[in-house]
Task: inverse folding
């Protein structure tokens, strides 16, 4: 597979109270947004926090784009990404991921 690839990850997070969940969400957002400009091949990063409050929703979504599959693979073991994963520890209770090629529309 060649060309740009989109990497989307969603998490459910720990937290006994609304305040703990909110703090956990902000921690994830802050840490991942700190990766902007620090990883070669990472061309876009966006972190969204759920506002629906439905019981089946994830708490956070990470929306990233990479130049190609090789850049995404390099991201997985990049020291900055590993630092973020370590800082989050066991904060996550569930993780869901989708990776797919970005089709150019020619528009």
Result:
């Amino acid at each position: 597979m060649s060309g740009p690839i989109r990497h989307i990850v969603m998490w459910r997070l720990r937290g006994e109270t609304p305040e703990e969940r909110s703090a956990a969400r902000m921690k994830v957002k802050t840490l991942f947004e700190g990766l902007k400009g620090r990883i070669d091949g990472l061309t876009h990063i966006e972190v969204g926090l759920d506002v629906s409050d439905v019981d089946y929703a994830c708490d956070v979504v990470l929306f990233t784009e990479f130049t190609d599959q090789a850049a995404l693979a390099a991201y997985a073991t990049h020291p900055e990404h590993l630092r973020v994963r370590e800082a989050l520890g066991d904060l996550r209770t569930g993780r869901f991921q989708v990776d797919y090629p970005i089709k150019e529309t020619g528009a």
Observations:
- The mean pLDDT is 94.
- The chain has one domain: 5-101.
- The helical segments are 18-33, 69-76, 79-88.
